[in-house]
Structure to design on (274 residues):
């Protein structure tokens, strides 16, 4: 019988931290705490230059799967149902979020 | 303040920095002429880690609200950035670059105060100054309204999207 490639983590945290993570999920659009946790730890390793543990520098190795033009066509198809009138609203909200988080905008 | 001439080293075309709104217009296929100039004619662009984070955040919001697979969107966005005419201005993995952005936050705040800009516009202004690139923006509230002053003081050329598409 083949061994599973996954292991299960159980992490105990206090309620305040759990609330913060829960709010982060909806704020950043993660589907689960598990998804957020995996990405957060991955980013933690990248920041400490432990790329080798992850198999290399992920963001430097932008391995193309599609030619740029095809990728654009695909992304346009995926996003074709976004209502035009909502675009500016979403862009402005995203820019405000990023500025607040990274630049300390009040 | 001296005024700088905009020029590129070897290309006849001066590189451009597109703001987040314009990148999203491109990704959504909302402007055929823009798509033709950038993707087909490969107009030279510069993108920084800060710009990428803004764009990815918009994609994340789209994914969250309209039930899209964010990682699929992100992957395709990186594929688009492989266009050889796009200069990616970050030497470290994106998270590391972000830390550097954060470290520059006080300077960005200072520049915003000094030039009476919104702080979120400062990374674009800094990059335009650094690379003598044209800054293309849809923001007529602050950047466009201050462009004469920014050009006089820093030599930065700022264009609206329509103006940019007319001259390239």
């Amino acid at each position: 019988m083949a061994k599973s490639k996954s292991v299960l983590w159980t992490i105990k945290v206090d309620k305040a931290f759990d609330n913060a993570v829960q709010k982060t999920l909806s704020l950043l659009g993660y589907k689960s705490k598990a998804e957020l946790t995996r990405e957060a730890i991955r980013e933690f390793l990248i920041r400490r230059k432990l790329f080798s543990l992850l198999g290399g520098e992920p963001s430097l190795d932008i391995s193309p799967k599609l030619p740029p033009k095809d990728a654009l066509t695909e992304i346009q198809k995926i996003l074709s149902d976004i209502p035009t009138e909502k675009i500016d609203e979403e862009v402005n909200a995203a820019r405000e979020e990023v500025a607040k988080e990274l630049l300390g905008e009040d | 303040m001296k005024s700088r001439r905009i020029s590129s080293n070897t290309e006849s075309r001066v590189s451009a920095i597109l703001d987040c709104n314009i990148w999203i217009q491109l990704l959504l296929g909302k402007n055929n002429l823009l798509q033709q100039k950038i993707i087909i004619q490969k107009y030279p662009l510069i993108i920084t880690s800060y710009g990428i984070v803004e764009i990815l955040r918009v994609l994340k919001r789209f994914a969250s609200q309209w039930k899209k697979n964010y990682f699929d969107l992100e992957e395709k966005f990186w594929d688009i950035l492989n266009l050889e005419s796009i200069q990616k201005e970050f030497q470290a993995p994106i998270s590391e670059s972000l830390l550097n952005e954060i470290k520059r936050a006080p300077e960005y705040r200072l520049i915003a105060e000094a030039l009476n800009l919104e702080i979120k516009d400062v990374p674009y202004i800094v990059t335009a100054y650094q690379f003598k690139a044209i800054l293309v923006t849809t923001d007529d509230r602050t950047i466009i309204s201050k462009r004469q002053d920014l050009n006089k003081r820093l030599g930065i050329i700022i264009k609206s999207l329509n103006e940019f598409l007319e001259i390239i």
Observations:
- Chain A touches chain B through 46 residues (CB under 8 Å).
- DSSP finds five helices and no strands in chain A.
- The two ends of chain A are 57 Å apart (CA to CA).
